[in-house]
Specification:
11% strand
Length: 296
């Protein structure tokens, strides 16, 4: 279990790390949730119940530092560094991350994802309609937001453009996000804004793809029926011990997290199929470069 939670790990991810580690420690101790509740009550540790422990492990309820200590004692965790790390997570689980300043400029439904994105270790993203936000130019973002929400006030549009550009620091920080993106070929052909905006956007994709931590693939139109027909989705990797999980958007645009293990495995299988059917990185970059020249 990695104990380097880094400067950018925010409250959301700290809670996930804490609760996932507590769950793993319980299972490693060979205890069920019912047994934990019974033993804690018998020891006089306070009001513990099966439902309370379940809510803690599913992040539906917070957990106090003293309660973490009681759980660690019951699980016979003697590793001083591990105990110190978990107690620190419990102490800082309610502190807000540095994204607080730009949250107000983004749709409410997107706030939870913003908290998570700042702490991602790796991102596997498949898109069918548009260039991913982390790889957009300001002009492309502006044209996209204005086109999707034509009645939005210009000052709101500009704040959202600034917010999206701020998010891109995950690709330029000292330990950048490992970003693997697959784009449907139609994205290269769908004009968003003027030809100049599209040309510059595609050139930006080529430039980003030169970095070691960015992999770009294009799924050709000729691929036919494939998992792409299920729509865009992402597989997100957070710091240990949090398992990979999926992310998609509902029909109304609201974010949906996919945490069920079988559903996540299905997402990863779809991703594997798409990576095999998409063009290799080098060929994809050549195709994007060629597409950019078409915008005069």
């Amino acid at each position: 279990m990695s104990q380097d939670n880094g400067d950018v790990v925010n409250a959301t991810v700290r809670r996930w790390q804490l609760t996932e580690t507590l769950r793993q420690l319980r299972e490693r101790a060979g205890l069920t949730i019912e047994q934990v509740a019974e033993q804690l009550r018998a020891s006089g540790a306070g009001k513990w119940s099966r439902s309370k422990i379940g809510r803690i492990e599913t992040r539906e309820q917070g957990v106090r530092i003293r309660e973490v200590e009681q759980l660690l004692d019951l699980y016979q965790v003697a590793d001083a560094n591990l105990r110190a790390w978990l107690l620190d997570l419990a102490a800082t689980a309610h502190e807000r991350g540095y994204w607080r300043a730009i949250r107000k400029d983004l749709p409410e439904d997107f706030h939870d994802f913003l908290n998570v994105e700042a702490s991602l270790v790796a991102l596997r993203q498949f898109e069918t309609m548009l260039v991913p936000g982390l790889l957009q130019t300001p002009d492309y973002t502006r044209a996209l937001i204005s086109g999707a929400s034509p009645g939005l006030a210009s000052e709101v549009v500009e704040r959202r453009v600034v917010a999206r550009m701020a998010r891109q620091q995950v690709l330029t920080r000292p330990k950048p996000l490992d970003c693997h993106v697959i784009l449907e070929e139609c994205i290269l052909e769908r004009p968003v804004g003027t030809p100049v905006i599209m040309r510059n956007q595609l050139r930006r994709l080529v430039e980003e793809a030169e970095a070691d931590h960015v992999t770009l693939q294009v799924l050709p139109r000729t691929v036919g029926a494939s998992p792409a027909m299920d729509g865009p989705f992402s597989v997100l990797t957070l710091p240990d011990p949090i398992p990979d999980f999926g992310y998609a958007e509902s029909g109304g645009g609201a974010p949906v997290y996919i945490e069920d293990r079988d559903a996540v495995r299905a997402c990863i299988l779809k991703w594997a199929v798409l990576t095999e059917r998409a063009l290799p990185h080098a060929d994809s970059v050549d195709l994007v470069r060629k597409a950019a020249k078409e915008y005069q």
